[in-house]
C-alpha cells in the first residue's frame, strides 16, 4: 500500500474509533517533518528480522506489553542493568525469555544515522509491535508518535505490574483493571498468545506439581499434557527448553488461541482461567468463531495499550542508545 493511502486509512480508523482516548501529547504523523522515514525504517528493519526468524514477532509484541504495563510505554524494558541498578529486563519474568532487543537496537542505529536524537526507543517499540502483528497476518492499526523515553527501570516493579501465568480470573481482571483495561479487553489481549512460545518452567507446575491431590492439572487436555511432558521432562535443567504457544499455528496471528482455550489446550492457568466465568467464556467462544471481529477488537486494545502512561512533551528524553540513559 502507498504511504499516502495508509495515512488516510489510519486517519479514518482514528476518526471512526473516536479520538477521545488519545493520550494528550501523542500525534499521528509525529515524525512527518523531523524524520519522515521513521516508520518506514522500523518496518523494513523489523520485516528483515522476521524473515530471518519469525519468532521475533512474538518477542516484540510481548515486549510492548511488558514495557507498557511497567511505568507506561516509556522504553523502560529496553534499559540494561547497571552496577547500581537491576533493570526490568533482568527480572525472571523477562530474562531469559524476552526476545527482540537486538532488533530494536538495529532500528535505533539506523534512525540515529538518519535523524540523530529524534526518534524515541518507546516509539520504535510501539511501531515494531504493530509491524510484527501485521507481518504475521494480524490487522494493522495506527500507532501515534511522540512517546519520550523514561530514565528509570526497576527489576522489582515487574512482579507487581505483570500478571503471572498462574493467575486465576479475578487476579487477571484486577491486574488489567489496575492499568485501565476492562475484563473484555483483558480477554481480547490474551489472544496475543496465538503466536510464540513458552519456556518449560512456566508450565512445569501444571505438569508435575499442580496441587496436593493432582500432580497433573486436570484442566489440561490429556494428549497435549502427554506431549508437553515429553518436551518438558520433569527436573529438566535445560532452562532454554521451550514449547509452542499454539500448536495449530504458532506463527500466524489469528484467533485460534481461543479455539485452543475452548479445547483446554491453552498453555497457562491464566489462559484456561478465561473459561471460569460465563461472561469471559462467552467472549472466548465469540472470538474463536469470528477471527475478524477479534482482530478488530485486538487492534483497538493494542492502540490503547500503546498509549498507556506515556511520557510526552519535555518529559523524559530521546535516548541515543535504547539500552542506556543519556
Ligand atoms: C493475560 C495475562 C498474561 C499472562 C499471565 C502472560 C504470561 C506469559 C508467559 C508466562 C509467557 C511465556 C514466556 C516464555 O516463557 O518464553 C508469555 C508469552 C507471550 N505473551 Fe503473554 N501473558 C499475558 C498477556 C499477554 C498480553 C496482553 C500480550 C500482548 C498483547 C502477550 C503476549 C505474549 C506473547 C506474544 C508471548 C510469546 C513470546 C515469545 O514467543 O517470545 N501476553 N506470556
Ligand atoms: C484467586 O487467587 C487468589 C490468590 O491466590 C485467591 O485469594 C482468590 O480467592 C482466588 N479467586 C478465585 C475466584 O478463585
Ligand atoms: C510443589 O509445589 C509446592 C507448593 O506450591 C512447593 O512448596 C514445592 O516446592 C513444589 N515442588 C517442586 C518440586 O517444585
Kindly summarize this structure in a few lines.
Keywords: Calcium, Disulfide bond, Glycoprotein, Heme, Hydrogen peroxide, Iron, Metal-binding, Oxidoreductase, Peroxidase, Secreted, Signal. It is found in: Secreted. This protein has 326 residues and is mostly helical.
Task: Give a structural overview.
- Ca(2+) 2 binds at residues 194, 254.
- Ca(2+) 1 binds at residues 67, 70, 72, 74, 76, 88.
- It is found in: Secreted.
- The chain is an all-alpha fold and 326 residues long.
- The chain folds into two domains: 3-14 and 25-161, Peroxidase, domain 1; 169-301, Peroxidase, domain 2 (Orthogonal Bundle).
- The chain is built from 14 helices and two strands; from the N terminus they run H-H-H-H-H-H-H-H-E-H-H-E-H-H-H-H.
- The chain has helices at residues 3-17, 38-52, 55-69, 101-114, 121-135, 157-161, 169-177, 183-190, 204-208, 222-231, 256-262, 269-272, 278-289, 291-305, and strands spanning 197-199, 242-244.
- A two-stranded antiparallel ribbon has the order 1-2.
- Helix 8 (183-190) crosses helix 13.
- It binds protoporphyrin IX containing FE (HEM) and 2-acetamido-2-deoxy-beta-D-glucopyranose (2 copies).
- One 2-acetamido-2-deoxy-beta-D-glucopyranose is lined by residues 168, 170-171.
Amino acid at each position: 500500500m502507498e504511504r499516502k493511502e495508509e495515512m488516510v486509512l489510519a486517519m479514518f480508523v482514528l476518526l471512526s474509533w473516536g479520538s477521545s482516548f488519545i493520550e494528550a501529547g501523542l500525534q499521528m504523523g509525529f515524525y512527518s517533518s523531523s524524520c519522515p522515514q521513521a516508520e518506514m525504517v522500523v518496518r523494513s528493519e523489523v520485516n528483515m528480522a522476521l524473515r530471518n526468524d519469525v519468532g521475533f514477532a512474538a518477542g516484540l509484541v510481548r515486549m510492548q506489553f511488558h514495557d507498557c504495563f511497567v511505568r507506561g510505554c516509556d522504553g523502560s524494558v529496553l534499559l540494561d542493568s547497571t552496577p547500581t541498578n537491576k533493570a526490568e529486563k533482568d527480572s525472571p519474568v523477562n530474562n531469559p525469555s524476552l526476545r527482540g532487543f537486538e532488533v530494536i537496537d538495529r532500528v535505533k542505529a539506523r534512525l540515529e544515522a538518519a535523524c540523530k536524537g529524534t526518534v524515541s526507543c518507546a516509539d520504535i517499540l510501539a511501531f515494531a509491535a504493530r509491524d510484527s502483528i501485521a507481518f504475521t497476518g494480524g490487522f494493522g492499526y495506527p500507532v501515534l508518535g511522540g512517546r519520550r523515553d523514561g530514565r528509570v527501570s526497576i527489576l522489582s516493579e515487574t512482579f507487581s505490574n505483570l500478571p503471572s501465568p498462574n493467575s486465576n480470573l479475578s487476579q487477571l481482571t484486577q491486574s488489567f483493571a489496575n492499568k485501565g483495561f476492562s475484563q473484555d479487553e483483558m480477554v481480547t489481549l490474551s489472544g496475543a498468545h496465538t503466536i510464540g512460545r513458552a519456556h518449560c518452567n512456566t508450565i512445569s507446575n501444571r505438569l508435575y506439581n499442580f496441587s496436593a491431590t493432582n500432580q497433573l492439572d486436570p484442566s489440561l487436555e490429556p494428549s497435549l499434557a502427554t506431549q508437553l511432558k515429553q518436551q518438558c521432562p520433569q527436573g529438566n535443567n535445560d532452562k532454554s527448553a521451550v514449547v509452542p504457544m499454539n500448536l495449530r499455528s504458532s506463527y500466524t496471528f489469528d484467533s485460534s488461541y481461543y479455539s485452543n482455550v475452548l479445547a483446554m489446550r491453552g498453555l497457562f492457568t491464566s489462559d484456561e482461567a478465561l473459561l471460569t466465568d460465563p461472561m469471559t467464556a462467552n467472549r472466548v467462544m465469540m472470538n474463536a468463531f469470528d477471527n475478524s471481529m477479534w482482530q478488530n477488537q485486538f487492534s483497538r486494545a493494542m492502540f490503547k495499550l500503546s498509549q498507556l502512561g506515556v511520557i510526552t512533551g519535555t518529559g523524559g528524553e530521546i535516548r541515543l542508545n535504547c539500552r542506556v540513559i543519556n
